[in-house]
Please model this.
Amino acid sequence: MSTDKPIDKVEDKLYGLLAEYESPGALIEAAREVRDAGYTKFDCHSPFPVHGIDPAMGIKPTILPMVTWGAGITGTGLAILMQTWMNNWTYPWNIGGKPLFSLPMQIPIAFEVTVLLAAFATFFGMWGLNKLPQVWHPLFGNDNFVDKATCHGFFVAIEADDPKFDQEGTTATLEKAGATAVEAVRYETSKKHRALPNGVIAFMALSMCLALVPFAYIAKQRASTSDKPHMHINPNMDFQTKNKPQTASDMFADGRAARLPVAGSVARGELKADDHFYRGLVAGEWATEFPKEITLSAETMERGENRFNIYCSPCHGLTGAGTGMINQRADAVGATATGWVAPSNIGQESFAKQPHGQLFNTITHGIRSMPSYGAQIKEADRWAIVFYLRALQRSAHSTIDDVPAGEKPAIR
Amino acid sequence: MSSSDTILHSEEKITAGPGVAKVKSAGFVGGLILLLAMTGWGFAVGDGMQRFFHGYLVAFTYFNSIALGALFFVLIMHLMGAKWSVNMRRIAEILTQTFPLLALLSVVIWLPMLLGNDNLYIWSSEKFMSENHLVHAKGAYLNPVFFAARQIIYYVLWIGLSRYFYRTSVKQDEGGDDDATRRMAKWAAPAMFGFAFSCAFFAFDMLMSIDPEWFSTMFGVVYFAGCCISIFALMALIPLALQRSGRLVHSITVEHYHDIGKLLFAFVFFWGYVAFSQFMLIWGANIPEETGYFWKRWFESEGVMGIWGKVTLVMLVMHFLIPFVLLMSRHSKRKLQVLAAFSIWMLAWHYLDLYWQVMPALNNHHTFGLAERSATGSYIPMDLGLWVGMGLLFMGYAAGKFRNVNLIPIKDPGLKQSLKFENQ
Model:
């Protein structure tokens, strides 16, 4: 539709003036002059982004980066929430003994969702800020614009809505800025003109219907039964060439697929090569010193007391005198007469003389009717208990002189 | 091509001032004194040489990463036909001229090994290789002779490449031969292949083999990320320093710094991406011979996080999260004080990155015990002394290369576009 000729429809309205320029440089120059002339409602059109057009037109920096940032952060948060919800509440599943909330494994998904939301926000945010799509934009009615704007034309369009717009003055401004041609652009105001073509509507309707087909198929399959075996979409994954535990295999002489570790294998961290720390031995003799890993501090002493009270005091009693609840009960029911071996008094002379390593060994393996505690109490804690035993042994031989002067009245 | 006067600003100073000679001699003297002092310390204390070699390896791979980054900068700009960076390319070209010094410094790593010293790489000990079944097959690759041969190959390649691109570019300054630009672009493609392989294998040899049982195909890329971080940080700092002394004041604008800042930001993220990818796959698969590497760099004993675990977290925050968030904005990249501050920041944390890779391997040299951890205490001044000493030596050597050469490729056909470059 050329606007040179008068249009004989009543709904026609002037959109504005369209000026053509020869080069990107001329376009920037023109944009600057139009801006300086005080116009605000105008736009530049070029086949490719022209560097420097934004400041020339006086456009403020876009807020789009903030939109992208916000969407990106939202994506990170949502992805982590989603995975936590799935892994911890709706479908908790132990994978390789890892905690249900395993942040490292959530990062890839969080990363992808961050990128996805940021990209969508940028793309659609750009549409929103530019008020796209504008398939009925008045300039599309101009043949010259349609021919050149996407290949080799550089245009400035000033809208008639601009407060400074008047057809003759604006034309003069544009021509003064070096326009090779200036023409008025008119458009039809009727809604009918803006309607989408029937073909486009039909295509959209059809693709929407087709998009529902997979869901309809899934719904049908879920609601019905079938006597056929299920489909194998990925046979490589369904039928893997691997051996499962408890199955047969021709590869090995004994015909079993499951194999034992190589003889002499030690799991990482289980070598326990340090005789002193793990066995209480130094050069084959009971250690008389604590191992270097144990710090002889008030903290260790408290740890030892804590462990002693949990594991040892039921039999040996809180003071180590062998008068724990179990022993009291055994006495009460008369078990002593029928072979109950009373727990030892840890404070007695013979134990006080035992080296640290021997006491450690007794805790680890037990002695006489005392069971072994090696499985329940870790090495460092066993050493802490030995440390505490030394304190108990000292207290068994304490006299009133050991009590600080200030505390004596309280004891009497 | 028109003469340089019409392109560059008429009052532009394009050669370095007399200051570089001072930097050169001060760097050489200070660097050599420090390095010798640290060597003396290493010899004087019981297991000091073991620590010396580890600290030396950190410092050496650090400065090698700068030169490699500079070579990458030159190659990628030629390969992509980048115009914006033409005005800065010469500075990178000059930095690649430090490879002869680095080749000399690398001898300290492999020569003692050839003479039977196994203080650094545990695989250079025959006892270890014969007793440790996990590394039998690697013996063909990990042995002192082949290691030394590979180092020589790398440095021959790097010195050759850096000389070709430097000399062709400098020669163009005289004649204004436009065809030289095309030739360099053509050779940049095969050179990039050579760079990629040599950079990755250098990282495998120098850094990854420090834990010989461990392996990661991502490792070379992590080192490459470090190379890029260090060069883009320096490509902000060196031009800023030159401009402060009155050089290139009209030719390098905030637009160029902005782009350098973008690349620094990109590689901060790239480092985080690849370093985490390496960790995540190993963490997820949980195979003993792979997790051992990270175990050592996290735990002190079973279930107890040690000093290296704290260092790992510090790196996550300092090397990645803080610069990632704060460098994201356009404003922080265009504000030159901020960009300079982050460049220095990244150069510092890049050192810690390499330190974190090398130092926990000291454990290899003691009997393997869970409760044992490497002695990070008293030797730290030695590590830092080696870093600073080698840094001074590197700076002095590089400063010498800045003399008698134009700081900008005055006859490059892309220079005009470069000077006019503006970001959108």
Q: What stands out?
A: The interface with chain A takes residues 276, 279-280, 283-284, 286, 288, 292, 295, 302, 328, 330, 367-371, 422, 424 of chain B (CB under 8 Å). The radius of gyration of chain B is 22 Å. The first strand of chain B starts at residue 299 and ends at 301. Confidence is low (pLDDT under 50) at residues 1-5, 367-377 of chain B.
